[in-house]
């Protein structure tokens, strides 16, 4: 308990310090225009650096920030398609200051801001760790129907079913125990039993952007952020009524080999999305929903899903905001576990009961209170719960041997304060309760109490970050575990368009209830409990550089990083050869090290033609055995080209490659025929869009156009070619 007392004392001291430094405030009013056209810019974000004080420009380009801290402050302006602007201004206490800002357009610089890297709004070039951003425009261009589809085209990320693998941190564990923390608007989306990611609950139409923080993030996010953080931020409604609708439909084509044809007609995918949002005075609302039906490219793999999302906000003053949101989804699907064999890759094993269905439901409710004090200090309080259930059914009747209901309760209070010019402190306390009632995991309770604090100091062109988090985890009647997670970071703005960064931090992940208590037969596997599991941990470090050359002959944006991930006590499923029946249990198996480099380039050849490419090279080593770490890749590479020959036509093409995993668990071949069948991945996608008006767009979408056959996980053929037609209205 001593570490927890230390952090609690630090948080108390911070509150006292913030109270002591409360300062007089003023008002900042400004006018934002395009540098070339002098036209006002609407919808840009204007913030005072180191605080949560900010505003959005109106139709005339005007912004007003009330309760701005007195003294010399830095105003940061970000807008999609424009270079980020940073300007100093002096604000006198109890008075109003005015300023005029002009910003330069750039198709290379997206004007990106992030909130996930350090839990506050920052320009992406000020963050000391690698961050990738997917905007709503990126999601629209890729026509994603599940958000994990978009993550497949991010440097350093691979996906194995629902498991996100950032720079080799994760292998494959049947979806149990994510090493990536996943959040939506600051609320955790890891389930209470499996600790896995539920991509099917995420509202595609309502997502404004996705931020992917690479490397250990436990210093701010706690358990699960051992490999990184995926944070989704939903859209804020505007004064105008926003309506969006999308429908799509199309078939999987016949598989590339005749022996894989399992039906005489083409299997289809169909789906629809709708969103309505508006801000009316002090209130705003957003509601979206959708349906999906996928007949699948293989037998016994159909699924039907429906989902909905809603968010309501009330802003009684410029300084106070209340939010409540919720979402729900239900899915009924057939449960394809692995293939019959390579010659029958689209068929399940002959002993599989094909009348069995897996039925899942998930829903969450979250609340948030946000208040700004004295311009330089703000507080956020959140509470939410995430309920997940799964059960197997035959002809609508539940099988008692395979069901689970789990609640994950999360509460947090975070304080951010700009103590002085160049000094920002962030601190918070969090609590998580995972409660499970299950035939699979029995009844179990897991609690995690945490406290964190982080300081940032800006001096001239340097930004230094130092943070520490303490977590106390206890499961059921097992002994508690204490985890300390420090971090350090430094950013050097060498020139306005060139920055360098360095960071190091510790991550950890507490064992999930599923890993400790699973007692289930899953296909041919008998999974047995192991309550003696310890937390796994990591040390992650990187050095990187970012260059945006907007005035070059070919405008280009380049990001380069070299990283080193040390992993300890990794929890992996393994065969217990010394136990009857050779069951699978989760064990702390190994120490590993993954070193690598990552390069991402965006180039604009003409106003109509752009190219983006990301290349990651890794050396994943199992230090314990001296062999290659299982289920990891050495090379990840993606490229995307976009050509827009006219204002209403756009053609996009993407290529994705990853080499075959050098090693898997050879003992899987005892249970799964042709388990070792794996090849490098070569996937080409293409899309053609036609927009007859600003409010209407049609798309022809091809996925895996070459119908290339490969596996993402053992004994599972990845999706073959699919062709979809899509219509959207805005």
Keywords summarizing the entry:
single chain, 730 residues, mainly beta, Immunoglobulin-like, Maltoporin, Chain A, 2 domains, 22-stranded antiparallel barrel, 5-stranded mixed β-sheet, 5 helices, 57% strand, globular
Task: Describe the model.
The longest helix is centred in the N-terminal third of the chain and has 19 residues, at 2-20. With 730 residues, the protein is mainly β.
Which helices and strands occur, and which strands form pairs?
Elements: H1 2-20, E1 25-34, E2 45-48, E3 54-56, E4 62-69, E5 71-78, E6 85-91, E7 96-103, E8 113-114, E9 122-123, E10 131-135, H2 136-142, H3 147-151, E11 157-160, E12 163-166, E13 180-184, E14 187-188, E15 207-214, H4 218-221, E16 228-234, E17 242-251, E18 268-280, E19 283-294, E20 303-317, E21 320-333, E22 356-373, E23 377-394, E24 397-420, E25 423-438, E26 442-459, E27 462-475, E28 481-495, E29 498-509, H5 513-517, E30 520-522, E31 525-527, E32 536-549, E33 556-575, E34 584-604, E35 609-622, E36 627-628, E37 635-646, E38 649-658, E39 681-693, E40 696-703, E41 711-713, E42 716-717, E43 722-729
Parallel strand pairs: 1-7, 13-16
Antiparallel strand pairs: 1-4, 2-3, 2-5, 5-6, 8-9, 10-15, 11-12, 13-14, 15-16, 17-18, 17-43, 18-19, 19-20, 20-21, 21-22, 22-23, 23-24, 24-25, 25-26, 26-27, 27-28, 28-29, 29-32, 30-31, 32-33, 33-34, 34-35, 35-36, 35-37, 37-38, 38-39, 39-40, 40-43, 41-42
């Amino acid at each position: 308990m001593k570490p927890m007392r230390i952090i609690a004392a630090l948080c108390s001291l911070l509150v006292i310090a913030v109270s002591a430094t409360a300062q007089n405030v003023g008002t900042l009013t400004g006018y934002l225009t395009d540098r070339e056209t002098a036209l006002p810019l609407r919808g840009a974000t204007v913030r005072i650096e180191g605080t949560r004080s900010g505003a959005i420009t109106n139709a005339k380009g005007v912004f007003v920030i009330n309760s701005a801290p007195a003294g010399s402050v830095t105003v940061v302006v970000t807008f999609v398609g424009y270079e980020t602007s940073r300007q100093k201004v002096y604000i006198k206490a109890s008075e109003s200051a005015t300023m005029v800002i002009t910003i330069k357009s750039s198709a290379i610089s997206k004007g990106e801001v992030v909130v996930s890297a350090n839990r506050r709004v920052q320009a992406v070039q000020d963050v000391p760790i690698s961050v990738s951003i997917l905007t709503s425009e990126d999601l629209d261009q890729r026509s994603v129907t599940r958000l994990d589809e978009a993550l497949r085209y991010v440097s350093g990320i691979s996906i194995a079913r629902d498991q996100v693998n950032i720079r080799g941190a994760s292998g494959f564990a049947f979806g149990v125990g994510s090493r990536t923390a996943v959040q939506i608007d600051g609320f955790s989306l890891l389930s209470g039993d499996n600790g896995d990611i539920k991509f099917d609950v995420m509202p595609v139409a309502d997502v404004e952007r996705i931020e992917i923080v690479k490397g250990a993030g436990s210093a701010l996010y706690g358990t699960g952020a051992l490999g990184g953080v995926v944070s989704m931020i939903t859209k804020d409604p505007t004064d105008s009524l926003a309506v969006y609708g999308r429908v799509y439909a199309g078939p999987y084509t016949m598989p590339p080999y005749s022996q894989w044809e399992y039906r005489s007609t083409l299997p289809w995918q169909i789906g629809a999305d709708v969103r309505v949002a508006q801000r009316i005075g002090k209130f705003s609302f957003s509601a979206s929903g959708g349906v999906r039906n996928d007949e699948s490219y293989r037998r016994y793999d159909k699924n039907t899903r429906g989902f909905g999302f809603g968010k309501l906000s009330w802003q009684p003053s410029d300084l106070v905001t209340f939010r409540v949101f919720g979402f729900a989804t239900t899915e009924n699907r057939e449960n394809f576990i692995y293939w019959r064999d390579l010659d029958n890759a689209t068929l399940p094993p002959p002993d599989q009961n094909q009348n069995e269905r897996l039925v899942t439901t998930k829903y969450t409710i979250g609340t948030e209170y946000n208040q700004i004090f004295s311009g330089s200090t703000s507080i956020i309080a959140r509470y939410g719960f995430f309920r997940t259930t799964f059960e197997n059914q035959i002809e609508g009747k539940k099988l008692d041997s395979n069901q689970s209901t789990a609640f994950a309760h999360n509460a947090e209070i975070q304080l951010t304060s700009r103590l002085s010019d160049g000094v920002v402190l962030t601190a918070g306390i969090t609590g998580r309760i995972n409660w499970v009632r299950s035939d699979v995991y029995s009844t179990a309770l897991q609690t995690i109490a945490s406290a964190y604090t982080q300081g940032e100091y800006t001096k001239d062109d340097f930004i230094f970050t130092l943070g520490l988090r303490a977590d106390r985890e206890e499961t059921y009647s097992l002994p508690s575990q204490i985890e300390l997670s420090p971090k350090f970071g430094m950013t050097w703005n060498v020139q306005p368009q060139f920055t360098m960064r360095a960071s190091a931090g510790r991550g950890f992940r507490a064992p999930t209830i599923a890993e400790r208590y699973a007692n289930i037969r899953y296909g041919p596997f008998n999974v047995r409990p192991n309550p003696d599991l310890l937390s796994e941990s990591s040390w992650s470090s990187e050095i990187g550089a970012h260059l945006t050359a907007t005035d070059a002959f070919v405008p280009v944006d380049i990001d380069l990083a070299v990283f080193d991930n040390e992993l300890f006590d990794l929890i992996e499923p393994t065969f217990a050869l010394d136990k009857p029946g050779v069951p699978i249990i989760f064990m702390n198996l190994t120490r590993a090290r993954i070193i690598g480099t990552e390069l991402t380039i965006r180039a604009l050849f003409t106003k109509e033609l752009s190219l983006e490419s990301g290349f990651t090279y890794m050396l994943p080593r199992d230090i314990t055995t001296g062999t290659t770490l299982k289920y990891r890749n050495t090379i990840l590479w993606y490229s995307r080209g976009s050509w827009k020959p006219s204002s209403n036509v756009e053609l996009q093409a993407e290529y994705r490659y990853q080499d075959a995993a050098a090693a898997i668990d050879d003992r899987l071949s005892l249970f799964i025929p042709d388990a070792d069948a794996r090849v490098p991945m070569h996937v080409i996608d293409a899309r053609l869009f036609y927009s007859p008006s600003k409010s209407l767009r049609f798309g022809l979408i091809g996925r895996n156009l070459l119908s290339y056959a490969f596996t993402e996980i053992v004994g599972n053929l990845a999706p073959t070619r699919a062709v979809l037609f899509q219509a959207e209205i805005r």
